[in-house]
């Protein structure tokens, strides 16, 4: 069991994924803070947690808590993370880490000043076969990367009656599909190839310009059917396509959409190199496609006994035993907590506050490009 003890702020869809992963790792979870004392107590009782915190100040003052997971709406991240860092806590924050690069830069400096570790939950790079692909690319298995392309498609906001707080700019920010799922894809592409995006050319669109906002509370991915609504104008992006130029003359393109019927959470990427290709789809996460020119293509089923040593440790179960979305949280948290426990000065393998800052800078460049209709350097 880890000597570090944790707490979670926010117990919605993603907060509960954090709680489950912490329990699987045997990391002591001391309590939860929700959006009111009453909801905190209800969540504590439902999930059988030791403590229900009544305020951020009460949580920050708990000397037994070492790490806090911030799983609240985007507009709260900076204030909560900065207060926790000042209180001496390590912070693992949901993305985006802040609402803008000014805030994210301040978090980097606060973490440095207080000698705390800050991580951002770009968990999708922790699918075992994504780890395998990265190791193969780094080893030269597909030669020099030439192209990286793909998409992240969902349908959970397909209807005008679909609603979530991310649709409101004051809560989620000026970008939505790009910020919410596009940053996952961009993180994946850069991490897989080891190349940073240096220039973007973007096209954004609000496919559904008016939506029906429920007058009652609706959790993420839950239907608002039967709840009274009111029409609201929408300005955030349902869709985006972005041309990419990365370091080393690597070229790419990303498409994201939250209005693509039948696509539930399809993060798809392909890297084409001078000697071969690799491709992955998160809706079939236990299969990695390997492309060749002069021999038959291959498909690697997730099996740690067949994976490279660098990736093998990110697969917890033997071949034939499926690993998916919840397991990515476990593997990221394993890296994060191990880094804190070691007090390491080495380069962290998990996504850091710097990662989150860089993604926000990319979002700024994408927004500027779409607005001005030109290539923009990052």
From TrEMBL:
Keywords: Oxidoreductase
Pfam families with a match to the protein in the record: GFO_IDH_MocA, GFO_IDH_MocA_C3
Domain of life of the source: Bacteria
Keyword Oxidoreductase in record: yes
Gfo/Idh/MocA-like oxidoreductase N-terminal domain residues: 6-122
SUPFAM superfamilies assigned to the protein according to its UniProt record, in alphabetical order: Glyceraldehyde-3-phosphate dehydrogenase-like, C-terminal domain, NAD(P)-binding Rossmann-fold domains
GO molecular function per UniProt: nucleotide binding; oxidoreductase activity
Domain spans labelled GFO/IDH/MocA-like oxidoreductase: 131-278
Matching PANTHER family: BCDNA.GH03377 (PTHR43818)
Protein name as annotated: Oxidoreductase domain protein
Species of origin: Candidatus Sulfotelmatobacter kueseliae
Taxon lineage: Bacteria, Pseudomonadati, Acidobacteriota, Terriglobia, Terriglobales
């Amino acid at each position: 069991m880890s000597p570090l003890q944790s707490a979670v702020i926010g117990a919605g869809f993603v907060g509960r994924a954090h709680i489950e992963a912490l329990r699987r790792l045997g990391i002591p979870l001391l309590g939860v803070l929700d959006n009111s004392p009453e909801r905190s107590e209800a969540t504590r009782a439902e999930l059988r947690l030791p403590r229900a915190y009544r305020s951020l100040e009460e949580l920050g003052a708990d000397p037994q808590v070492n790490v806090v997971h911030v799983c609240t709406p985007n507009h709260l991240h900076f204030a909560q993370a900065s207060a926790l860092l000042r209180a001496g806590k390590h912070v693992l924050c949901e993305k985006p880490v802040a609402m803008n690069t000014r805030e994210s830069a301040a978090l980097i400096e606060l973490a440095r000043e207080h000698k705390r570790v800050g991580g951002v939950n770009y968990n999708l790079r922790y699918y075992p076969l994504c780890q395998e692909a990265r190791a193969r690319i780094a080893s030269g298995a597909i030669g020099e990367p030439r192209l990286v392309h793909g998409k992240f498609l969902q349908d959970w906001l397909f209807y005008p009656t679909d609603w979530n707080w991310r649709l409101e700019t004051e809560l989620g920010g000026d970008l939505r599909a790009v910020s919410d799922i596009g940053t996952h894809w961009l993180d994946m592409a850069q991490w897989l190839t080891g190349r940073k995006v240096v220039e973007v050319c973007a096209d954004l669109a609000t496919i559904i310009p008016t939506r029906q906002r429920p007058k009652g509370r609706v959790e993420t991915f839950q239907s608002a059917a039967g709840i009274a609504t009111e029409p609201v104008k929408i300005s955030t992006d349902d869709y985006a396509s972005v041309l990419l130029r990365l370091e080393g003359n690597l070229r790419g393109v990303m498409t994201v959409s939250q209005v693509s019927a039948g696509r539930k959470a399809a993060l798809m990427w392909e890297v084409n190199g001078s000697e071969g290709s690799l491709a992955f789809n998160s809706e079939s996460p236990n299969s990695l496609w390997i492309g060749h020119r002069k021999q038959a293509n291959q498909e690697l089923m997730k099996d740690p006994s067949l994976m490279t040593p660098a990736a093998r440790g990110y697969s917890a179960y033997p071949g034939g035993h499926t690993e998916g979305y919840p397991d990515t949280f476990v593997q990221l948290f394993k890296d994060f907590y191990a880094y804190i426990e070691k007090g390491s000065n080495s380069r962290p393998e998990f996504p850091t506050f710097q990662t989150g800052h860089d993604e926000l800078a990319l979002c700024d460049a994408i927004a500027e490009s779409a607005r001005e209709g030109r290539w923009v350097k990052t």
